[in-house]
Amino acid sequence: MAAVVAWVLTASIGVFMLRTWVTRGGLRRQRATGVGVPPALVFGHASAALTGLVTWIGFLGTRWAPLAWAGVALITSAIALGVCTVTLWTPYPVVTPPVAAPAVAPSPGPSAAPPADSFSVTDEMIAGLLADPFPASRRPRLKLVPLIPVVHGFGALITFMFAVLAAISARLRGP
């Protein structure tokens, strides 16, 4: 029973993410540009997870061990497709080529005077602080949106664990 509860909670988060992706134009954008996660991958992930849930509910009704193992196989494929989805969605760091340093003119010697406006930056900063000594501080907002896929992924792993334990238990108990 724990597996089906975890499965339903994880699937509801997944349905939320899928609905958000479709309503915000992810499907349309991918079809127009060809860039991003292929819709077959996204819908394959969702289909494997939901088919596994239906299979698992069938197992709960019949207690037939092969249905439990079929559910485990389906959630395993759903997790594999989910990992592929996250891998394709995650931006990779881009290496920027190093910028060539500007040529430095030879120094005339240790007695060179600093430029005339070397204190203008400091004067501007002091004048700005005196004009508005206490700028309005904004309370930092927590950005929880990236946690949604993380919670979904951990939910899938917990569901997998419960499903495997229940399938082993069903196999040990027999028909």
List the helices and strands and how they pair.
Elements: H1 2-23, H2 26-33, H3 39-62, H4 65-89, H5 120-131, H6 147-173
Helix pairs in contact: 1-3, 1-6, 3-4, 4-6
Order of helices and strands: HHHHHH
Mean pLDDT rating: 83
Task: Classify the beta-strand content into a percent band.
Answer: under 5%
Number of helices: 6
Oligomer designation = single chain
**Helices and strands: which structural class?**
mainly alpha
Q: Care to count the β-strands?
A: 0
Helix percentage range = 55-70%
Give start-end ranges of low-pLDDT stretches.
none
Rg calculated over all Cα atoms = 29 Å
Principal-axes shape call: elongated
Rounded to the nearest angstrom, the distance between the terminal CA atoms is 18 Å
Q: Characterize the largest beta sheet: strand count, sense, and whether it forms a barrel.
A: none
Describe the structure.
The chain is an all-alpha fold and 175 residues long. It has a domain at 2-90 and 148-173. The protein contains six helices and no strands. It has helices at residues 2-23, 26-33, 39-62, 65-89, 120-131, 147-173. Helix 3 runs antiparallel to helix 4 (65-89). It is elongated and about 85 Å long.
Essential attributes:
175 residues; mainly alpha; 6 helices
Write a compact overview of the structure shown.
By secondary structure, this protein is mainly α.
